[in-house]
Design a protein that fits this description.
By secondary structure, the protein is mostly beta strands. It is about 10% helix and about 25% strand. It has one helix at about 15-20, and strands spanning about 25, 30-35, 35-40, 45-50. The strands form two sheets. Strands 1-2 form a two-stranded antiparallel ribbon. The protein has a two-stranded antiparallel sheet with strand order 3-4. It is rod-shaped, with a radius of gyration of 22 Å.
């Protein structure tokens, strides 16, 4: 006996912008800063934010 395949439900489109990390421009350093960083006024560089 042959097994009948049921048609698969259509998959929703993938929203890549919500998956990929957002890169931001640091106006002080004049460069792209990585995700989860901020510009430190003491050391004058972009540093990783501390998670609480």
């Amino acid at each position: 006996m042959k097994e009948e395949k049921t048609p698969e439900a259509p998959r929703p489109p993938i929203d890549f912008e919500s998956i990929l990390p957002q890169t931001k421009w640091c106006k002080t350093c004049q460069c792209w800063k990585p995700d989860r960083t901020h510009h430190c006024s003491i050391c004058d560089e972009c540093v990783l934010k501390m998670d609480q």
